Amino acid sequence: MARLRTWAGIALAGALCVSVAGCSSTGGKRAEDARKAAAAQGKAAVNTPRWTFAMITHSGDGDTFWDIVQSGAKQAAVKDNINFLYSHDDEAQQQAQLVDAAVDKKVDGIIVTLAKPDAMKAAVARARKAGIPVITVNSGSEESKEFGALTHIGQDETIAGQAVGEELNKRGKKKAVCVLHEQGNVGHEQRCAGVKETFDGTVQNLYVNGTSMPDVQSAISAKLQADDSVDAVVTLGAPYADTAVKARQDANSKAEIDTFDLNAKVAASLKDGTLGFAVDQQPYLQGYEAVDLLWLYKYNNDVLGGGRPVLTGPQIITKDQAAALQEYTERGTR
Fold first, then answer.
1. For the whole model, what pTM was predicted?
2. From CA 210, how far away is CA 217, in angstroms rounded?
3. Radius of gyration over alpha carbons of the chain, in Å?
4. Cα angle 114-325-284, degrees, rounded to a multiple of 5
């Protein structure tokens, strides 16, 4: 099995099988997973108190990426005897209000994303003042420590962007478009800026209305029609990759479509060559470790990361690795 290339080491606690090299992709593995799940019967593996943890993210409705994050978080919550609460809003002020509501409920721990950190700072401070431990996840690695969080779990977005730039160089690309589908998201800006740092060619940012796929498709198609020298389009989320493929067809362009994040559709498109490569940040791991590390802090005052983010990526996934990951994307854990 091809070994996945990784840009960042991962410091992790827990016994989940998260390395492709360590997992069989055979039916025997699926049978073993089913046997273990049946044996567990949803029972906790610990006898600690039933604490309540709240996760509040900047996800919009229907974003499959966050389904994978939740899947990991819920699995860890069962193991750790945690009452897990999830809420989300893609408007920063509303997300902050959801954090305030969790504080009012006197939850035992909070997991939060900082896609728009300025809007979240006061709410996180209120949680800390109330004595509620906070872990940030996915976005906001640079602000996490400043805001008083125990640690941050996710990928370094600048490093991830740099990895994309170097991969584009290897592929001989000369002109790329970086498609930003959520204006004001600092992580998205960091990704595209990272691409520019390492890519030997030129990069243009294209801002689109990510809440409307027809608008996204139209904007990308128009860009490709206007500039036939574009030979790479980089989307910042898995659902947008397929839309970019359709836009390429509309524009009769030969540009390669590459994307951040992974799902079953992306894995299949990598396998058949429709997409060039994907950047995986392992969202299942982000959810799982966020809950598990909060539990470790409550149980044993453990803090992982040594003051630095716990990195879950990036990993560059190409056609060679797609087949090995397809089983996991289909079950919703990659």
1. 0.82
2. 10
3. 20
4. 30
For the chain of 334 residues, list the mean pLDDT of each consecutive stretch of 10: 39 37 42 45 86 96 90 97 97 97 98 97 98 97 95 96 98 98 93 98 97 97 98 97 98 98 95 97 97 98 93 95 91 90
Q: Which residue has the tokens 């819920």?
A: 74
Long-range contacts of 15-23 (CB under 8 A, 24+ apart): 16/75, 16/285, 16/288, 18/282, 18/284, 18/285, 20/321, 20/324, 20/325, 20/328
**Distance (Å, rounded) from C-alpha 71 to C-alpha 287?**
7
Per DSSP bridges, beta strands 134-137 and 52-57 are unpaired
Q: How far apart are the first and last CA of the chain?
A: 17
- Of 314, 310, 330, 313, the closest CA to residue 322 belongs to 330
Rounded CA separation 219/162 (Å):
25
Amino acid 98 reads L
307 — phi, psi (to 5°)? 85, 0
CA proximity to 238, closest of 202, 264, 256:
264
Residues 6+ apart with CB under 8 A from 134: 109, 110, 111, 112, 124, 127, 128, 147, 148, 149, 150
The DSSP letter of residue 305 is S
DSSP helix/strand/coil, 153: strand
DSSP 25-38: -SHHHHHHHHHHHH
* Cβ-based neighbour number of residue 269 at 10 Å: 22
